[in-house]
Fold this protein.
Amino acid sequence: MNEPSASDVVHQCLGTLQATDHAHVAAPLACLAEQLVRCVQTSSEDPAAHGDALSYVIQTCAMVLARRCEEQFLAYPYSEVPDAWRRFYTHTTLLRACAALLRAQAEPHLPRAFWREQIRALDMALITTDRLEDTHRILVHHMLAALQDRHGPSDPPTRKRRQHDAPRSRTTSPPLYTAVPERTKPTDVEFARLAADGASGSPFIVRGYARHWRAMQPSTAPRWADAAYLVGRAGPGRVVPVETGARYTDRDWGQTVMAFDDFLGRIGWGEDEGAAEEKLYLAQHTLLTQFPWLADDLEVPNYARTTHATHRGTMPITSVWIGPRGTVSPPHTDAYYNCYVQVVGAKWVWLAPPDADWGGAMAAWRTDAAETYAGLMHNTSQRDVWASPTCVDGALQAVLQPGDLLYLPPRWWHAMHSLSRSFSVSFWF
C-alpha cells in the first residue's frame, strides 16, 4: 500500500479540525501533523527540493494548524495544557519551518528577521514542550540547524551602555553564623550512604568539585564567562525565557521571551562588573536540553545517578540559572535531591532544615490562599532571610565560588543571592 501524500494528510487534518470537541481532537491532530512532517522529511533530506504545489500545501496547512493550536493554548491555564496539544504545537512549528525552507527556493534573499522568527518559533516549541520525545527533539534541532544555516552567523553580543554603573560587587563571604559543612570529595558509595538519609540528612559543600569542567577552562576567559562563546555555541536567532524583576515573590515580577544574545548583552555578561539597568534572570530553565551542545562542557555528577530518583525517567533534571549581581531566589523547598554547581561568579546560599517551619516560623504562603498566585507558592517563605539570616533555628550559610558543588537533601529550605554575575547548574534527582 502506498504511503499517503502530503496533500492527502492535509485534507485529513482539515477534516479533523471540523470536530466540535476540541479536547478529543488533540491526539489525532498531533498524529496527523507528525505524519505530514514525516511526508516532507522522507521525500528528501532537504524540504526545499519540493515543488511549488507542495510548497503551497504545506504553507496553507501550517497556517491553519498554527491558528488552531494558538487558540487551544489560550483555552487552558499553561500548566494544564494537555500533552497532545503540546506535541501538536511542536509539529505545527516544524511545518512552519518546512514552509519557510520551501519559500526560500522562490525568494533566496529573505531577510535575517524572517529566519530569526522561524528559529524563535522552534525554540518556543522546545521551551513549552519540555517533555518532548528524543526523536522529536532531534528533528527540531535538525531543522534549527537548517534555518540557522540560512540565517548566517550571528553578531557578537553587545553590552547595553548605562550612564551609571555601580562599583564592582564583592564576592567575599557575608557574615556567617553557622557555616554549611564542607567535605572532601566523597566516593559514589559514600555519597549513596549519605543520600540514603533523605530529608533527615545534612547538606554539604565540595569545594572545587567542577574546576576540571570544560565550561570553566580558559580560552580568553572561562568558557561560560565569555558571552561570545555562549552565543556561538547556541547559534544565531535563539530565544530564551527570562524572568523580570528582583524576585518571583514581588508584585512587579514577570516573564518574557528574548533573544539569547540580547539577554547576555543586557546583563553585561563578560564585561567588567556593573549594575544592570533592569533585573533579568534566566532561572530554572532546561537550557542544556534547548542548547544540547553546551552539555559537552560539563559532566553530570555521578552523585545524581543514584537510585533515589524522584522524578520521571532515569536521568537527573538539569536546569541553569544565569543572571546579574543581585538576583535572588526567595527561601523555598523542593521535593528533589539536588547537586547544585556554581560555574561562574559567586553566590550566597542560605539553608534551613525541613522542620524550620515548625509553628509557621518560615511564614510560608498558605495553600488555601484566595489568590491563585499565592496558592501556587505554598513551598515558598515570605521571610526576608537576607535581612535576618538567623530568623529560624538551624539556619546555615555559605558562599559558593566557581567550581563548588552544594549537595542539598529534599525538602530543605534554601535561598540564593548572587554576589556577582552568576551561572549555576542544578541537577535534580
User: Anything to note?
Assistant: The CA atoms of residues 177 and 397 lie 7 Å apart.
